[in-house]
Amino acid sequence: MSTDATPSTVLPSATPGKASPENLTGSQSVVRTLELLGVTDVFGLPGGAILPIYDAIMDSSKIRHILVRHEQGGGHAAEGYAVASNKVGVAMATSGPGATNLVTAIMDAHMDSVPVVFITGQVFSTLMGTDAFQEADIVGITMPITKHSFLVKSVEEIPATIAAAYHIAGTGRPGPVLVDITKDAQQNTAPFVWPPKVDLPGYRPITKAHGKQVLAAAQLLAEAKKPVLYVGGGVIRSKASQELLELAEATGAPVVTTLTARGAFPDTHKQHLGMPGMHGTVPAVLSLQESDLIVSLGARFDDRVTGNTALFAPNAKIVHVDVDPAEISKIRVADVPIVGDAKDVIVDLTAAYQDATRAGKPELVEWWTYLNGLREEFPLGYTPTTDGLLAPQYVIQRIGELTGPEGVYTAGVGQHQMWAAQFIKYERPNSWLNSGGAGTMGYSVPAAMGAKVAQPDRTVWAIDGDGCFQMTNQELATCTINDIPIKVAIINNSSLGMVRQWQTLFYDGRYSNTDLNTGHDTVRVPDFVKLAEAYGALGIRVTKEEEVDAAIKLALETNDRPVVIDFVVSADAMVWPMVPQGVSNSYVQYARDHSPSFGGE
């Protein structure tokens, strides 16, 4: 499609008054295109096949390039930047191993619908297919995990291709786009034509929903006795939090927010039941399970939410709103499928609901009596430790309370991720960043780095596990050198905590290869405080509850360098509630060997 047909992407004009196009190398063309698209920050690591672009980027006064210590870190930093700012992130790497080191971050962005443009160098086009030094078919490798992939062999194609990649990444259902550019295309010259003609036949994301479908959804909402608004990360991607609030208050329906949607709806709002899923709150899990209508907004019925899909919400009709038609009815057949952007659809749905209920709104008192009873009987909490070590839930809760809702919180994957999702109060979108779909260990520190670059005036915490932290902690060097003062809280239980929890519950306590020797009463390899100091960060170790607040306050006051706090916590702490894998959500366990009781069962 031409740029005329895509009003959502308005390409700025190049410098006015030039009689003829300027001759630029391909590498200069890459940099100029990024500048004209409004890109101000790029994360990357140079190598032979992308050297021409790195040479050209030296001459840019508009783009800040941040040299990462590992390409995976650059990819996650671009993700964190994108999620925290609602902009398109950009990461760069060289060919071969540089490009393949980006694959994990590309998959992560794909699973969580994060808009990132990944630019890689490729060997000379004449050498492709010969197993040349550092050659890898990165387009072929990443095709299943990108929204689109481009291979550029001609200098003339560069402006239009990068502009198209930027447009694809940020429109419709956001996601990662790869642009692989051969070295000869970077080195050759051609007239730089701007704005380019962006031709994307077949790419027509639907944003405006069909009116009849919205009316049908509104009618179901007007008739439902046990409705639930099931809110996914798409609400945050479409910047629809305010619209969601208006819909929720108009309907009076309970709201649940998935792991990637935390902050889309304020935790303190009386209609919010918390997070659903394997480690969701009991009211959130059972509200979906017992409902008669689920209105899914930008969510995808992930297996961690549904449990055994065949047994999920057996009495519920489904309204499924998603910008990606491939998601609708993929897992749970929708009674009313609505393809469209969440923000637009929610506005229309609110208006249609108000029209449908002019004669009177449905009575939800009985439904709320049941849900409030669950809230009272099964509040989110934790059991104090018995080994004298810190309770990780307490540590994370205090980080949230002392930092406040204006902070940004990232997490790795595992127990600490679930505790951070549960025990920090999220009041605004873009304040919670984590690896939801892919479950990527090592996401937290580089994502926090990217978020801090995007939001320099906000306090940014990386809440990490001792296992996850050892995957990407080299990016502390990037933070120190580039004045990116993130705070890192290592929830150090000296083990791969979530794997250990499953071994405790399902493998008779056989702890095969989950001991990491980083915490209490171990050899402490590595010593996280010494490691932090070696990277130029402030290192603190906390072993007692009375030390927790002082350490967090010191971290909050320290903004001239990164801070790393080694919170030595109990290895026996577990994440509750929990729905064991493969069973009905009705069997949610509030604590070990304790499930809610059901009347008549």
Keywords:
globular, 601 residues
Describe this structure in words.
This protein has 601 residues and is of the alpha/beta class. Helix content is 36%, strand content 15%. It is built from 23 helices and 20 strands. A six-stranded parallel β-sheet has the order 3-2-4-5-7-6. Strand 6, helix 7 and strand 7 (176-182) form a beta-alpha-beta unit. It is globular and about 70 Å long. The model is unreliable at 1-8 (pLDDT under 50).
Task: Please specify the SSE layout and strand pairing.
Layout (H helix, E strand, L loop, with lengths): L22 E3 H11 L4 E4 L6 H7 L6 E4 L3 H15 L3 E5 L3 H4 L2 H9 L4 E7 L15 H5 L5 E5 L5 H13 L5 E7 H5 L1 E3 L19 H13 L3 E5 L2 H4 L3 H11 L3 E3 L14 E3 L7 H9 L2 E5 L5 H4 L10 E6 L13 E4 L2 H15 L8 H13 L14 H12 L4 E4 L3 H9 L8 E2 L10 H11 L5 E6 H7 L2 H7 L5 E6 L4 H10 L21 H7 L3 E5 L2 H13 L5 E6 L33
Parallel strand pairs: 2-3, 2-4, 4-5, 5-7, 6-7, 9-10, 9-12, 10-11, 12-13, 13-14, 15-16, 15-17, 17-18, 18-20, 19-20
Antiparallel strand pairs: 1-8
